[in-house]
Amino acid sequence: MYATPFTTLEGIALEPPPEFQNPPLLNLKPEQVDGILDKLSQFWQRFAHLFQRREQSEWGVKYISGRFMEGEKYFTSNIAQRAGEENERAMQNFVGASPWDDQALLIEHQSVAQETIGHPEGCIIMDGSGFPRKGTESAGIGRQYCNATGKVDNCQVGVYLAYVAPKGYTLLDRRLHLPEEWFSPEYAVRRVNCGIPEEMTFHNHQEWALEMLQGVHQRGKVTFQWVLGDEEFGRDTWLLDQIADMGDGIHYFMQIPANTRVWLERPETEIPIWKGRGRPNTRRKLVEGEPDPQQVDAISLPPEEYVRYTLHEGSKGPLVADVVFIRVVAVRDALPGPEVWLVIRHDVVSGEKRYYLSNAPEGTPHPKLAWLSADRWPVERSIEDCKDELRMNQYSMRSWRGWYHHMTLVMIAHLFLVTLQQEFREQAPALTISQARMLLKAVLPRPVFDVTAALKVLHKIQICNHRAYLSNRRRTLRKLGKLIDI
């Protein structure tokens, strides 16, 4: 869990690391793959007892299995068809409306994550992800920034915590962000229709992330030492101070905007002398003549102070960067705050500069800090895995409860793929999440699509089309009723 300094004269390692010099080992036997379904059954037993009824547990494992299977669409009705279930409405009700406790499953999920990949120096990473959606009735939908489209769009946005350790990574928790307008009187009916709890109040992304982090910390089921995040979280000094106050050896390492201001040395402050008029001054201010803080992108350091590191060896080769580490004084309410690390990373290939702040102790090894600057990718990879392999972004539930149920089950499904990675670590050390799902697709039973099955599907389609026609007709008549006297 440390970055590696270059030692060659030119600063370029021409040979890959030893573990990458030969093709990866793949020594899995067919009988091991055949046993994956038994492993899925054993894995699900950790969660089955948390449902109120046996039928709910059965729907849960079917919903997860349906997301492992091959298909073009992964909405609830499609999953029910692939699982061989005729009662699609029952599955839709299970995910969207049934009152089972997703929080209980989530807590067990965190316990399994710890058992599978837990490490004392694990990292928790904060991130947000948008889901483009149509319409206006889904919980939390609105015009907001959507990273999936790279612009302000009509979407739902989730805030997530991921966990990364030497053995692997997975998602830990999730929150559905509700834009501020959802708490206005105009949205009262929509809040009721979506089942949003009456006691719910507005939270920004940073507040949601902290609430989840505090929950993980208080439950004590997951061991971690570091909290990471991008600029959205790193610019929020309130969030940084809340993490710093958690204690237990927990430290933040956050990317910050280039215009963040710091002092290179702690300036002198004073309480102004009372001149006998008005209230005595109690707030400190900078002593006259002390320098103002400067932006981190204006800090100029000689090239020899940078050290070249291999931060990460990925599928496209090494990520190489020149990194420098400076102790600086952070700004709090225009006054000097805590002394922290400023890490400046200059990527050799792209030329991009990135800036980070950390409240890690002064004696923290520099290679550790360098490694942390490149360790935020697992949260993006976890979310992409869930979208690409489990179609986390394909769901038909509009309700608050449905969103949480769906996300919880997808996160559990992802964790099962992680357990397969660990189970086959010796025989297939390079096994990816996508490849683990490929093995699952090979052993999951496929529904028989013969003439009888095709006729059943056609019958369902025609019934759905007729229901849609009747609903649209009623809507049209209501509109006509406002225009003509009928």
Specify Rg, calculated over alpha carbons. 27 Å
Q: Could you give a short account of the major beta sheet?
A: 13 strands, mixed
How does the overall form come out from the CA principal axes?
globular
Assess the beta-strand content as a share of residues: 15-25%
N- and C-termini, Cα separation: 74 Å
Kindly name the structural category: alpha+beta
SS elements, strand count: 15
Question: In summary, what is this structure?
Answer:
The protein is an alpha+beta fold and 486 residues long.
Would you write up a description of this structure?
This protein is α+β, with helices and mostly antiparallel strands. Among the domains are: 258-274 and 282-366, no CATH class; 451-486. It is built from 15 helices and 15 strands. Strands 1, 2, 3, 4, 5, 6, 7, 8, 11, 12, 13, 14 and 15 form a 13-stranded mixed β-sheet that branches. A two-stranded antiparallel sheet has the order 9-10. Strand 14 and strand 15 (353-358) form a beta hairpin.
Overview features:
two-stranded antiparallel sheet, globular
List the helices and strands and how they pair.
Elements: E1 4-5, H1 30-34, H2 36-48, H3 54-68, H4 76-82, H5 88-96, H6 102-117, E2 123-132, E3 142-146, E4 151-165, E5 168-177, H7 188-194, H8 205-219, E6 226-229, H9 231-234, H10 237-244, E7 251-256, E8 261-263, E9 269-270, E10 285-286, E11 294-295, E12 307-314, E13 317-332, E14 335-347, E15 353-358, H11 366-372, H12 377-390, H13 400-423, H14 433-443, H15 451-483
Parallel strand pairs: 2-6, 6-7
Antiparallel strand pairs: 1-12, 2-4, 3-4, 4-5, 7-15, 8-11, 8-13, 9-10, 12-13, 13-14, 14-15
